Amino acid sequence: xxxxxxxxxxxxxxxxxxxxxxxxxxxxxxxxxxxxxxxxxxxxxxxxxxxxxxxxxxxxxxxxxxxxxxxxxxxxxxxxxxxxxxxxxxxxxxxxxxxxxxxxxxxxxxxxxxxxxxxxxxxxxxxxxxxxxxxxxxxxxxxxxxxxxxxxxxxxxxxxxxxxxxxxxxxxxxxxxxxxxxxxxxxxxxxxxxxxxxxxxxxxxxxxxxxxxxxxxxxxxxxxxxxxxxxxxxxxxxxxxxxxxxxxxxxxxxxxxxxxxxxxxxxxxxxxxxxxxxxxxxxxxxxxxxxxxxxxxxxxxxxxxxxxxxxxxxxxxxxxxxxxxxxxxxxxxxxxxxxxxxxxxxxxxxxxxxxxxxxxxxxxxxxxxxxxxxxxxxxxxxxxxxxxxxxxxxxxxxxxxxxxxxxxxxxxxxxxxxxxxxxxxxxxxxxxxxxxxxxxxxxxxxxxxxxxxxxxxxxxxxxxxxxxxxxxxxxxxxxxxxxxxxxxxxxxxxxxxxxxxxxxxxxxxxxx
Length: 512
Hints:
12 helices, Dipeptide-binding Protein, domain 3, alpha+beta, Dipeptide-binding Protein, domain 1, six-stranded antiparallel sheet
């Protein structure tokens, strides 16, 4: 499977709602109070901005996503998400599952130290993981399968699982896999001034919590060469327009741009790189048992909905080219992606009407869906597409704070970000997954999920997740519409080297 590489954008395109942007970047001040020189690269600085401050820098309270730009600089994770979707060694130099997938052994890299000079040991890893799995917080559930942890020597950590967990390795490459200093981890100061083994330390004198975070590189870090910037400034700029204006004014080095802003960035002399497959948008047809909408219990109805959607039209008219049509939940850079599946549901309203008639709905039916800001730009087109085949959509306004992933709604529009196949399967297919609120199960699907959970070979697991993907498309469990692309505007001398699989991490940026 080939990874979709970044590509250069050579034309400007109209705007998509700011909510579609997976990240935003902007300007920041240097420790001296003077703005760092944009594009200095190399031994210089880089300044980024995010739309929200970290809720905490306590290992047990970390959120994945944008906040990783900060905590991912302060902490090492045990593993690291590779650009091709495969996990790479990081603080753990190697790892191995037992044959029954209930024991995971991690061998730590030699010579790692915390920012205070203390060595990173297996006991430090155990202390952090034990604390995270027993502390209520965003990462606790990711370690739910861990029953106990052994440290047979200073460099070896053994996780004993209550049952196989295909999500565990991916979680150890995210917030659940950081390593905190056992001497300070329980201190209240850890939330704002942590001691980690990462490539940077937080400059407390220059940092204003919730507003601006200044990170200074540790030249003694084992992987310092992967971080070309001596100083990283991350500022919180909630207003996306303000962040982009700072970028266009030359006050920042890199920034996320939507379709409209790409043209402005190019006109201002900035380079624009587009990373394809950053997320998948479409309808989650959650009520496959027909509890709220009896019509959705018939696979022919769900297939009709898929056939009613002109996916290329959505990409052309709304995304204006900043995306690709798709019929599958797994994004194009995923190891579970099957290219041929995107041909399964061509735009065919006539066939959609035939399927509805076969299912007993020749006169159509009404479907209630929640309407929040995420779906706003797509709402009219979805309404028209389904109305053309006889399905009337009644949109019920809800706030962004409303959880639409409940049994109150037969389905909903969602834009999902990139995740490893195991994580995507757990969220969308497993009975307890957040995008499976009705707990849909099928014997064939259950067998595939169990097989994937018990498979420790990555290549074999990828093949099983492709089968899961095929099951989802064949049974029209979802109605995906597009794989979203993300634009980055970059000052001269700064490059973006990540792919759709890359985490939001300083390592994705480079210097020419």
